[in-house]
Amino acid sequence: MDVSIIVPAFNEGDSIKELYEEIKRAMSDRVYSFEVIIIDDGSTDRSHQVIKSISEHDSNFKYLSMVKNCGKSVALNEGFKVSCGKYIVTMDADLQDDPNEIHNLISKLEDGFDVVTGWKKERKDPLEKRIPSKVFNLVLRVVSGLKINDFNCGLKIYKKDVVKHLKIYGELHRFIPMILHFKGFNVAEIPVKHRKRKYGKSKYGLHRYFVGFMDLLTIILTVKFKTRPLHLFGGVGVLIFLVGFLVLSYLSLLWFLDIRPIEARPLFFLGILSVLSGIQFVTTGLIAELITKNDPNLEEYILKDTNINEQSDL
Questions:
Q1: Cβ-count burial of 188 within 10 angstroms (0-12 exposed, 13-18 middle, 19+ buried)?
Q2: pLDDT tens string for the chain (314 positions)?
Q3: Whole-model pTM above 0.85?
Q4: Any residues with CB less than 8 A from the CB of 163 and at least 6 apart, and which?
């Protein structure tokens, strides 16, 4: 199998049949053998009936049906587990992603990249969704150092070996390019066609951005600084401690020069608070270091290539 196309779906009963027909047309050249795996994420509409009906008439069309809505990350994880393709494509079920872009993604991946993500350059979503998304992507570029424009585009392609190292849950699907970048994989981006939503309504609300921020902190702690938590907590702690130290040094100088009393000034209490907070941050980092260093599964090192097996066969 060359390509597995994974499609998480939640209450997209009106669009699934049309998406299926579009994928068939896009892959009709038969250059690549393919399978389509739809994950019905606990839909309460007629999605399950539509999916099951299609699968009965097309052996390339497979599905998983969740008992309840578990979220896009869980749906993708389940799809990754059962996919057989050398290349794995993910796309949304709402018809906003164009299946004709799959060949462009494959072509870019074969240039030597591990992951290629789409960029909705001309996005067809309402303004209230586009503006927070731009801010979100800007923050991720600064934090990760990965220079791509659209971290959360549903249209992506991976090499099979890459998804083995993905363990996503909650809302972590939004950060997949960032996670894989931190793990050392080569991530690329290409502009893709984006279309207006044809059926139903968006599942995303403003609360997702708050959840996204919490998940960003999770990734920073558990992926980027997993083996060196003191670098994070210690860096923040030293900075806060220095601010407090400078404030108290300034106030101490005023006291020695007998210019004015310092004990009743708010700045005095801010200085004390900063020094104590800085010490607490550093202490937290040291405790985290002690905990992580006793973890036998501390780091997952990923081999790019080896010839050991070839030599052992000689």
A1: middle
A2: 899 999 999 999 899 999 999 999 999 877 889 999 999 999 999 999 999 999 898 988 999 999 999 889 999 999 999 999 999 999 999 999 999 999 999 999 999 999 999 999 888 877 777 888 888 888 888 888 899 999 989 999 999 999 988 888 877 888 899 889 988 899 999 999 998 888 777 656 556 666 667 777 777 776 666 667 777 788 888 999 999 999 888 888 887 777 666 766 788 888 889 999 999 988 988 887 777 766 655 555 676 666 676 555 55
A3: no
A4: 80, 83, 88
Strand order in the sheet with 156-159: 61-65, 34-40, 3-9, 87-90, 156-159, 115-119, 187-191
Q: How far apart are CA 210 and CA 206, in angstroms?
A: 7
For 15, the token pair is 């669009």
Strands 34-40 and 3-9: parallel
Q: Enter the tokens of residue 126.
A: 């309402």
Q: Which residues contact 314 (CB under 8 A, 6 or more apart)?
A: none
How many CB atoms are located within 10 Å of the residue 202 CB?
11
Q: How far apart are CA 208 and CA 6, in angstroms?
A: 23
Do 83 and 37 form a contact (C-beta atoms < 8 A)?
A: yes
Number of Cβ atoms within 10 Å of the Cβ of 207: 8
* Amino acid in position 116: V
Give the H/E segment covering residue 285. helix 266-293
